[in-house]
DNA sequence: GTGTATAATTAAATCGGTCTAATTGGAGGA
DNA sequence: TCCTCCAATTAGACCGATTTAATTATACAC
């Protein structure tokens, strides 16, 4: 049970500790037969490489920090998966924290990562994160890449979806389909994707000369429950909306379930569009129209950008937007010809 | 940008490195005013504690390894969240790997964790894991706890749901409601929860003297798509089933969506029960009956068991089963009185 | 046979805290 | 004044691998 170290191997193989170290790392300095002998001895003794010791000397832990803001969201889960793949390929490890939309937790996580000496950090900042909160990362000199969310007026590497453009596309299509009363449902305000999606939404409405109603956006937790919880509020608007752009597919699912509960059929009585194109979106009844921006692309792009930084890329910060493509499915229906077709339960 | 270390602080505070170390860790050996002075100097200089260096000396990394088998499953995501909470409380870090149901990846993950010197490991073994695969953990002397899945004939700490009992309850209720043709849908075979759920299923059927049809179980990926993909096969059975116990809520969602697509209404024409009681299950249309076993309970229980091991608990391995409670909701309907009520598409 | 170039190996310093054993300083007692 | 005792502080070995500079061994040329 006692841990085997280089010295034991050295003794067993009849060489010095230096030789063992070099041999195990595959250094060309060591003669082949010697290296082979060393490797066998290590194997024999059940040697386990001690990365901690190596890290101390190397000033490299071969560890990447991943700080998620909300990983119960399936989009982030899928993203994390691709991050993992990229990390695994490079024989690195992932230090993981879900800040769960808590600024305090995020800051503690960052501190933790710094203390562990991660080589780099992938961060999706929680709402209300300011440049000052992230200044510590720059001071510490740790390479980091923001993903999914950026911080205004904070110059840093970033990879995320083209949110303004995506929302704009979706709303334009809704308008083409005859909708005029459109709302934006769900999402955490004070995050860049929310602001950008709302921006794209407004832009499309303004270009079409459509006035926004007094209440035209509704914030919520990004989840099925969050979407479901907003249905009543939306239906209480003076002149009932006929379409909703939802912050995410999960929100859209909840919203559709809520509509159905009120006897309103999404995809016929009410148009719904989400964001993310989750695998189940096309299986829904009705299939959910959505803005597709593959989470795996975001994840692997962010990871690769970070790796390049680790490899010494000193260029100015880069901002990469990944295209959001509108996937038109049944839930995105035209407006009903004669009246709204909606029977309000409370009437 | 240069890293501040104990020596710098020592110089600044006019004390020795030892004093700084002791002071920062809050040792009672150091006089209060001195400790305060040291802490201020550290603060001033922007010192970041180097856990790697400490770990080398301490033989403790304050790091826990979490190896998931399938964390795209929301149940695991929720579980991981509670693991994180417990870990965070104790100021430890999480080294995370999703083995994604790949044995090779799992073994590589275990190796990685050992090399990083994690203090303990939480592991949900992938299918086909044998005692031999995990022997390395025992040899290495690293405390570990299995969660959600156990390995037959492998004596180790384990926390998971009461699967046999849960499935048994569900099927008994189905039988009480008049169902006779019942199938088990979804899930990865060769994992203990699958085997146990199938076992409970069989037990209830046998006790009721109901014969199982030739094809009565259907394996699938644990996801909405997995559930949806099995609908056709289920409906092709000679005498059409009237009820399905699904491996998970996600599978049940997919299965229900598939049924609807075929014009069969779950909760009226077909009874469906899932496992997990996800937050959205009660929001579904119809609300999904399910076996509830809070993922947060599993996660925090497993983590605490591991922590106790780290704290020196040397007792024999413990197996903890967390009760699964049948939550009766609309999707668990009685069998239709006159005929199956199902119009088969292919007839 | 000697000298030199080259290949293979190794000694030893190093990474940054930790912690025990040793040292120092000051209070109090005789 | 000297001694004892205890509190506060510190020197220095240590954790386990890495890596450079130094050393030894080997080959080859003349």
The radius of gyration computed from the alpha-carbon positions of chain A, rounded to a whole number of angstroms, is 26 Å
- Indicate the percent of residues in helices of chain A: 40-55%
Question: Which series of helices and strands of chain A comes N to C?
Answer: HHHHEHEHEHEEHEHEHHEHEEHEE
Largest interface: A-B, 54 and 54 residues
Q: What number of structural domains do the residues of chain A give?
A: 3
Proportion of residues in extended strands of chain A: 5-15%
CATH topology of the largest domain in chain A, anyone? Rossmann fold
Overall CATH architecture of the largest domain in chain A: 3-Layer(aba) Sandwich
Mean pLDDT of chain A: 95
State the distance separating the first and last CA atoms of chain A.
75 Å
Low-confidence stretches of chain A: 339-347
Judged by helices, strands and strand pairing, the structural class of chain A is: alpha/beta
């Amino acid at each position: 049970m006692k841990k085997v170290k280089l010295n034991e191997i050295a003794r067993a193989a009849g060489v010095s500790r230096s030789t063992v170290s070099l041999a195990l790392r595959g250094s060309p300095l060591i003669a082949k037969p010697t290296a082979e002998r060393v490797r066998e001895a290590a194997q024999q003794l059940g040697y386990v490489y001690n990365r901690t010791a190596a890290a101390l000397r190397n000033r490299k832990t071969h560890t990447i920090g991943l700080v998620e803001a909300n990983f119960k969201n399936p989009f982030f889960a899928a993203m994390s998966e691709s991050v993992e793949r990229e990390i695994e390929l490079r024989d690195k490890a992932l230090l993981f924290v879900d800040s769960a939309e808590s600024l305090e937790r995020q800051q503690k996580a960052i501190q933790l990562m710094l203390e562990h000496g991660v080589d780099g950090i992938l961060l999706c900042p929680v709402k209300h994160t300011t440049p000052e909160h992230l200044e510590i990362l720059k001071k510490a000199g740790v390479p980091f890449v923001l993903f999914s969310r950026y911080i205004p007026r904070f110059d840093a590497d970033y990879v995320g979806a083209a949110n303004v453009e995506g929302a704009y596309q979706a709303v334009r299509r809704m308008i083409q389909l005859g909708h005029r009363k459109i709302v934006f449902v769900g999402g955490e305000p004070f995050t860049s994707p929310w602001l950008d999606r709302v921006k794209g939404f407004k832009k499309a409405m303004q270009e079409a000369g459509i006035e926004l109603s007094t209440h035209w956006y509704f914030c919520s937790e990004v989840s099925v429950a969050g979407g479901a919880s907003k249905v009543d509020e939306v239906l209480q608007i003076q002149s009932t909306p006929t379409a909703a752009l939802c912050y995410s597919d999960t929100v859209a699912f909840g919203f559709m379930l809520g509509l159905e509960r009120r006897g309103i059929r999404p995809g016929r009585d009410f148009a719904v569009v989400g964001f993310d194109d989750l695998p189940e979106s096309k299986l829904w009844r009705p299939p959910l129209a959505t803005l597709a921006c593959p989470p795996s692309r975001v994840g692997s792009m962010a990871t690769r950008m970070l790796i390049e930084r680790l490899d010494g890329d000193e260029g100015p910060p880069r901002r990469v937007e990944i295209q959001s493509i509108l996937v038109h499915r049944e839930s995105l229906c035209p407006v009903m010809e004669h009246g709204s077709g909606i029977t309000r339960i409370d009437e």
